[in-house]
Each structure stands twice: as structure tokens, then as C-alpha cells.
Specification:
alpha/beta, Spore Coat Polysaccharide Biosynthesis Protein SpsA, Chain A, two-stranded antiparallel ribbon, about 15% strand
């Protein structure tokens, strides 16, 4: 697979990693096998995550202390953009995403390079732990309302971000933002006129993987607080709620099954 897009620059894969020693090498090797340039941001791991990448042709950025997922994504993106990339793909390091599905993301990027493309997992409900699934569905409703458009998976870390996300959007990416970033960036992008597309992807939770860093109550509460602030400032914006409940078909010139058309769960 060629990972080239926009101007001939490679589309790097940025993998934020915090204590992912059990899975990180497999994830990186599989991404490399797809022809991708890989940037791993070790976010202050204490389990030897960085050491597991010895001998692999990756760019490794190491933070001395844990700064959070948002800061890691931003650092990886800044490194990629400084080298000439016009966007990045992000993958989680815990093995839940299938690097072989990078092609599905990049097929859409090839025809819509200015859009955010999200690998949507919630159609595979039985493969997702119930607490995660319910928390994600809850978050989707509120994020869609604040964004004023339908959102199929607000918490997926398998995404393509065009450079405009990092160059023009005012989105917090400090330690406190952590998991809030991936939700807030969708809202900010939608309001800025950056399109958001969803591609169905598979998901798996490896037996060797550590427990999720995202707390289904605490972190979703932080996301809810961010959304509530935006909605209150907008006077709740009922028209945005109506738009968020509409289903639309994306006119994307790509394989027929690439853009999310799957039925919603009741």
C-alpha cells in the first residue's frame, strides 16, 4: 500500500502509547507492513514500552512524564507536519485497531483529503465491552448535538486528521484535556466547516492488553462537562440537535462499502 497523499508526502501513523509493552510491537510491526511511516509517542511509560520497539524503523518520541493522550497526539502530529506531512493517521497502541485497515481510511483520504476520517466501531457492538459501548453511545448523542451533525463513533482513536486540525483549530491538548480532546476536536471541526466522515472498522480487545485508560464514568463525565459548557454558551441550540439526528449520505467517490452506511442499533 502506498501511504502517500496530498503533495506526495507520506501519511504518517502516530501511535500514542502509555504502558503498552504487551501489544505495542505487534501494532507497530503490522502498521509498518502496510508501508506506513510510524511515529510512536511513549507517554512516560513505566513498563518498558519504548524498549519493545528496539530494532524497528520508527520515529520514537519519549516523554519523561505522563502528559496524556491529547498531548501525545499533538506532539506526534507536530513532528509529522514539520517534516512535510499534510495529515496523520492515529492508532491506539493497545491492539484494538486493525492496522491492516489503514487502507480503508486512506481510500477516503485520497478523495476527501480535507476531511477528518474516523474508523467507526460501534456497529461491532458484541465485540466491545458493554461499559465502553454504553459510554460511547451516550457520548455520541451529546457530541453530535454540540457539533450539529450525526456522529457515529466519537471515541474511536483510529482516525485521519488533516493538517488544518492542528494549524487552525483552538482545541486544548494539555494533560487535563487527555481523552476530552478526541471529542472536542470533532465539535470544533464541525463548527469550523471541516467535514467528518465515518468508515466502519473492526475492533478487538487482546487478552494481553492492559485495561483501558479511559474511565467509562470519570472521563465521560469530563467530556460531558466540556459539551455542557459549549451547549449552554449556545443557548442549547435546538437547531443543532435537529441536525444531529438526521442521517446523511456522503457523496464520496470511493468503494461502496467504505463510508459508514451500517444500520444503527436500537
Amino acid at each position: 500500500m502506498s501511504a502517500a497523499q496530498g503533495g506526495g508526502h507520506p501519511c504518517p501513523v502516530v501511535i500514542p502509547a502509555y504502558n503498552e509493552a504487551a501489544t505495542i510491537r505487534d501494532v507497530v510491526e503490522r502498521a509498518l507492513a502496510q508501508g506506513a511511516q510510524v511515529i510512536v509517542v511513549d507517554d512516560g511509560s513505566t513498563d518498558g514500552t519504548a524498549a519493545r520497539l528496539a530494532g524497528l524503523p520508527v520515529t520514537l518520541l519519549v516523554s519523561e512524564r505522563n502528559l496524556g493522550k491529547a498531548a501525545s497526539i499533538w506532539r506526534g502530529a507536530e513532528t509529522a507536519l514539520a517534516a512535510g506531512a499534510t495529515g496523520i493517521v492515529t492508532l491506539d497502541g493497545d491492539g484494538q485497531h486493525n492496522p491492516e485497515e489503514l487502507r480503508r481510511i486512506l481510500q477516503i483520504v485520497a478523495v476527501r483529503p480535507g476531511a477528518i476520517v474516523v474508523g467507526a466501531r460501534l456497529h461491532a457492538g458484541r465485540a466491545i465491552p458493554l461499559a465502553r459501548y454504553c459510554a460511547n453511545r451516550f457520548a455520541n448523542f451529546w457530541i453530535a448535538w454540540a457539533a450539529g451533525r450525526p456522529i457515529d463513533d466519537s471515541q474511536s482513536g483510529f482516525r485521519y486528521y488533516p493538517a488544518a486540525v492542528f494549524r487552525t483549530l483552538d482545541v486544548r491538548h494539555d494533560r487535563r484535556a487527555s481523552f476530552v480532546f478526541e471529542s472536542e476536536v470533532l465539535i470544533a471541526a464541525a463548527r469550523a466547516g471541516i467535514d467528518i466522515l465515518f468508515v466502519p472498522v473492526s475492533v478487538s480487545y487482546a487478552a494481553a492488553a492492559r485495561a483501558s485508560h479511559l474511565h467509562p464514568v470519570i472521563d465521560i463525565a469530563k467530556i460531558a462537562q466540556m459539551i455542557a459548557g459549549r451547549l449552554i454558551r449556545d443557548g442549547l441550540n435546538p437547531s443543532a440537535l435537529v441536525r444531529s439526528l438526521r442521517r446523511r449520505r456522503e457523496p464520496v467517490a470511493a468503494p461502496a462499502d467504505s463510508v459508514a452506511r451500517y444500520p444503527r442499533k436500537p
